[in-house]
Design goal:
The chain has helices at about 5-10, 20-25, 30-40, 70-75, 85-95, 110-120, 135-150, 165-170, 175-180, 230-240, 290-295, 310-325, 335-345, 365-380, 405-420, and strands spanning about 50-55, 60, 65-70, 130, 155-160, 190, 205-215, 240-245, 270-275, 285-290, 350-355, 360-365, 380-385, 385, 395. The chain is α/β, with parallel strands linked by helices and about 425 residues long. It has 2 domains: about 40-80 and about 330-420, Aspartate Aminotransferase, domain 1; about 85-325, Type I PLP-dependent aspartate aminotransferase-like (Major domain) (Aspartate Aminotransferase, domain 2, 3-Layer(aba) Sandwich). The strands form 3 sheets. The protein has a 7-stranded mixed sheet with strand order 4-10-9-8-7-5-6, sandwiched between helices. Strands 1-2-3-13 form a 4-stranded mixed sheet. Helix 5 (about 85-95) packs antiparallel against helix 12 (about 310-325). The longest helix has 16 residues, at about 135-150.
């Protein structure tokens, strides 16, 4: 006899699925228990914090405890949680319409307005926006576009890179630990060393595209060194290879400029966006020249489609968030806040600190040490995490609106934990 998990759950509680009192009894089950029983888990020991409110750089749990947010939804909430202009834009759009059809056949004002705003603040060659529902989907679309436009098959990425978790994006992820359980993956993928000049010769006339994070985030905030990104751009030009820069995590001011690639005087052929793109709502995009993007219109028609990419409510929220970012000049304060963090995060237990704007990795040498520190900080009301490929490093990527006072409090807790206080 096959017994479902739901049957076992109720049997263990001495309840029947057919008992009319089940619904009444289930109200006594905590949200945490329901979460662990019915929501797909990604680890064996989730934090299971029950957050009921978020505003600015502060989170509140079900018991009223507050947390300084040093993660911002993994760089999603760049302008802070629940900015009133974003909330108002969402409400306004919901009153007009939500989902209609977003395959590019209908003119939907939120999509058009946001695409215009984005391209107004990008180099002239990045003028056509293809919306997706997430950053991972943006990666998938860009890979298809590069193959379709060039007629080539090879894709090159870099070790310790992260571009998403779907099978195409997983194929170019730069760590075998995360890939191995899901093979076979895409063929004809090569991975090179980030910041290595010698490796660039592996890019040839059969390479469709090179996909690189402008700032390697999950590797522990690694920054391109000594003109390496310019050399990568040059090699792509020499071989007719498309350069895809992933700013899903580092875009929208997090590194001290609107786009991280601006700091290196390099323009990609395709730009990947996500996370902060939606202002807290799910949204991704890949952006290229219209000459490239039109490759999806024929042979075959509908060369790339999705159901929810460019959802009107997400586009309305994202446009409002970008306007806030620019109008309130939030990017102007990023480098000063970075400097404040760096001045306060000084302790013999800290082995190194890597940073680029408000993307900071504090290295404690091992995951075991780092995890104890993270758990202690959460107990003290500082919400933070670790990096996929730098598990010994503490992640700091707060909303750009975090105040100097909040930075001092958060860093004070870090130092107190390290001192055993």
């Amino acid at each position: 006899m096959i017994i479902s998990l739901r049957h076992l759950y109720y049997m263990n509680k001495g309840e029947s699925l057919n008992n009319p009192l089940d619904k009444q009894r289930s109200t006594a089950i905590s949200n945490r228990e329901l979460f662990l029983s019915h929501v797909g888990q990604t680890s064996e020991a989730p934090l299971a914090l029950e957050i009921v409110k978020a505003k600015g750089s502060t989170l509140w749990d079900v018991d009223g405890k507050t947390y300084i947010d040093l993660i911002a939804g993994i760089s999603v909430c760049n302008i802070g949680h629940c900015h009133p202009r974003v909330v108002e834009a969402i409400k306004k759009q919901v009153d007009e319409y939500m989902h209609i059809m977003v395959l590019g056949e209908l003119v939907e004002s939120p999509q058009v307005a946001y695409a215009k705003k984005l391209t107004d603040h990008l180099p002239i060659s990045l003028n056509s926006v293809f919306y997706t529902a997430s950053g991972t989907e943006a990666t998938e679309g860009a890979m298809k576009l590069a193959k379709r436009f060039t007629g080539r098959t090879q894709i090159i990425s870099f070790k310790n890179s992260y571009h998403g978790s779907t099978q195409g994006a997983l194929s170019i992820m730069g760590d075998e630990y995360w890939r191995n359980a899901f093979r076979p993956l895409l063929p004809d993928v090569m991975q090179l060393d980030y910041n290595s000049f010698d490796c660039l010769q592996n890019i040839t006339e059969r390479t469709a595209c090179v996909v690189a994070e402008t700032i390697q985030a999950e590797a522990g905030v690694l920054v391109p060194q000594n003109g390496w990104l310019s050399a990568l751009r040059k090699r792509c030009n020499e071989t007719g290879t498309l350069l895809v820069l992933d700013e899903i995590q580092c875009g929208f001011g997090r590194n001290g400029s609107l786009w991280a690639f601006e700091q290196f005087d390099v323009v990609p052929d395709i730009l990947l966006l996500g996370k902060a793109l939606g202002g807290g709502m799910p949204l991704g995009a890949f952006i290229a020249d219209k000459r490239l993007m039109d490759s999806f219109t024929n042979h075959p028609v509908l060369g790339h489609i999705n159901t929810f990419g460019g959802h009107p409510v997400s586009c309305a929220a994202g446009l409002a968030a970008l306007n806030v970012l620019l109008d309130e000049k939030l990017i102007d304060g990023v480098k000063n806040k970075e400097a404040l963090f760096l001045s306060l995060l000084v302790h013999p237990s800290i082995q190194s600190v890597h940073s680029c704007g408000l993307m900071i990795a504090v290295d404690f040498g091992s995951f075991e040490v780092n995890k104890k520190i993270i758990d202690a900080l959460i107990q003290r009301g500082v919400f933070t995490d670790w990096f996929l490929f730098a598990s010994g490093s503490l992640r700091i990527a707060p909303p750009l609106v975090i105040s100097d006072a909040e930075i001092r409090i958060a860093c004070g807790h870090v130092i107190n934990v390290l001192n055993g206080n």
